[in-house]
Amino acid sequence: MNGYSSHTYLWVNAAGVKHWVKYHFISDQGVEFLTQDEADRLAGADGDHHVRDLFDSIAAGDHPSWTLKVQLMPFDDAANYRFNPFDLTKVWPHGDYPLHEVGKMTLHTNPTDNHAQIEQAAFEPSNTVPGIGFSPDRMLLGRVFAYADAHRARLGANYKQIPVNRPHNEVRSYSKDGAMRIDPVSDPVYAPNSKGGPAATYPGQVEPQWAADGDIVRSAYVDHAEDDDFGQPGTLVRDVLDDAARDRLADNVAGHLLDGVSEPVLLRAFEYWRTIDADLGADIERRVRAG
């Protein structure tokens, strides 16, 4: 399957030129799927099917890979783009911002210790390198804090000293002590200080930044010209999915709605799907009513 950042990030180059960016990891294996019935049967008969398939493929030298492509939006385009470019639920049409190939990600080595290398792995969007920053995407900004908080609760305050999470470069921070502290530190760990200790300076590239305009309040996003919740899903249903995919979608939705959903909620669900696409909504209702 493909993978997408969904969130919008900010890139700045050595000359200080900024672009908003979305990441696309395109599967070099193609895209495969299971129908709902196949998935239900497989979940009961062999719940580890996908993990084992990945492990065995890597062990056999059949290394799966994904081609990384990005969409780049000039920094100033965001303010007046027809969709809110920071809305997690929206995509940028490729006709407006085409894909640019960047490189390839390959999975070539299996873990030797599932707990140490998989269960203790801590992924978080706040881990960035110079030149990559965040956008005003509110969900992303929330995740920048929330993921690290979750790791501290799950793995401990010093989770970044666990080998699978350890940075390749030395990290200097104000952090010291705490449970499972591995790397010793010597005072002071703070700056400024009068003891010849560390200084809060960084000789490299300035962190990517953006300025907020208007009041920062708890409210909905500012609407752009073509912002709505149903236009892009309708395009997906009518123009991207083929007949077989639309049939699977209707069958999956109807199957879940048949699982004890009350009549008032059913009526809202039918209206929701009709708003996306009238034919799809009618097909879903027909399947549910037929039982």
Molecular structure report:
- The protein has 291 residues and is an alpha+beta fold.
- It has a domain at 228-291: Hemocyanin, N-terminal domain (Up-down Bundle), CATH 1.20.1370.60.
- Helices cover 33% and strands 13% of the residues.
- The chain has helices at 36-45, 49-59, 114-119, 138-155, 231-240, 243-257, 263-276, 278-290; strands spanning 3-4, 9-12, 18-27, 65-74, 99-106, 132-134.
- Strands 1, 2, 3, 4, 5 and 6 form a 6-stranded antiparallel beta sheet that branches.
- A hairpin with a 5-residue loop joins strand 2 and strand 3 (18-27).
- Helix 6 packs across helix 8 and helix 7 (263-276) packs antiparallel against helix 8 (278-290).
- Pfam families: Catalase (PF00199), Catalase-rel (PF06628).
- InterPro entries: Catalase, Catalase_core, Catalase_haem_BS, Catalase_immune_responsive, Catalase_sf.
- One of its GO terms (molecular function) is metal ion binding.
- One of its GO terms (cellular component) is cytoplasm.
- What's the overall average pLDDT, rounded? 93
Beta-strand content:
5-15%
> What characterizes the major β-sheet?
6 strands, antiparallel
Radius of gyration: 24 Å
The tally of beta strands, per DSSP, is: 6
Distance between the termini: 32 Å
Task: List unreliable stretches of 5+ residues.
Answer: none
CATH architecture annotation of one domain: Up-down Bundle
What's the CATH topology label of one domain?
A: Hemocyanin, N-terminal domain
Summarize the amount of helix as a percent range. Answer: 25-40%
3D shape = globular
Number of helical stretches of at least 4 residues: 8
GO cellular component, one term: cytoplasm
Pfam family, one: Catalase
Family: Belongs to the catalase family.
Keywords: Heme, Hydrogen peroxide, Iron, Metal-binding, Oxidoreductase, Peroxidase
